[in-house]
Amino acid sequence: MTVDDLNARDDDRAAGTGEKLREHEVRTALLDLLAEVGAVTATEAASRLGYSSGLCSFHLRQLARHGYIEEAPHSGGRARPWRLKQHTPAADGPAEEQFGDLARGLEDESWQRWLTQRGEAPSEWRHDEAFSAVAYLTPDEMSGVADVIRRALAPYRDREQRPLARPDGALPVALITRLFPLLPHTAGDEGQD
């Protein structure tokens, strides 16, 4: 058994317990990396992202199991490169939409996991700051609100890639913002509620 095998086994166990809060972060980082570089092995992903190769391997397999990524062509050997699943745009829609759907699915999955397992979190983490609002904005104002949110988050962005920049007690927190205009209901919407 190799070190990677031991790490994968430990990470498989951890993914079922206290590491659940990191799943969204790790999977999102892997998908972003694949979108950036095309194909990576678990070892390459670990080197680039600062996680263990076992943890990357586990989450790459999970993403493949759910149909988001696939094995990339390779010349054999132990190296197992992965890439984003190749879709036919005519059948599945533009790649940006597919990635957006994937991200929203992972967000929703993480939110549902939080709701069901909140009681298992340390007491200081058993609350959330979820909220929603409707505001009447112009397109420029909507873009301005998005810019304010991005600037507010900027001081914390480097912590994902630089674990040593994280203060003691910091955990990954999902920060999800969706700004979009609410379109009026049409006659075709009747009975869809």
Q: Give the tally of β-strands.
A: 3
CATH superfamily: Winged helix-like DNA-binding domain superfamily/Winged helix DNA-binding domain
C-alpha geometry: globular
- End-to-end Cα distance, whole Å, is 54 Å
Counting structural domains, the number is 1
Region (Disordered): 1-20
Protein name: ArsR family transcriptional regulator
Pfam family, one: HTH_20
Set down the secondary structure blueprint.
Elements lengths: L2 H13 L7 H15 L1 E2 L1 H8 L3 H13 L3 E3 L10 E3 L4 H4 L2 H23 L21 H15 L4 H4 L32
Antiparallel strand pairs: 1-3, 2-3
Helix pairs in contact: 1-4, 2-4, 2-6, 3-4
Commentary on this structure:
It is a single chain. The protein has 193 residues and is mainly alpha-helical. 49% of the residues lie in helices and 4% in strands. Strands 1-3-2 form a three-stranded antiparallel β-sheet. Helix 2 (23-37) packs across helix 4. The longest helix has 23 residues, at 95-117. The protein is globular, with a radius of gyration of 19 Å. It holds the Pfam family HTH_20. This is ArsR family transcriptional regulator. Residues 1-20 are annotated as: Disordered.
Summarize this entry quickly:
This protein is mainly alpha-helical and 193 residues long. The chain has helices at residues 3-15, 23-37, 42-49, 53-65, 89-92, 95-117, 139-153, 158-161, and strands spanning 39-40, 69-71, 82-84.
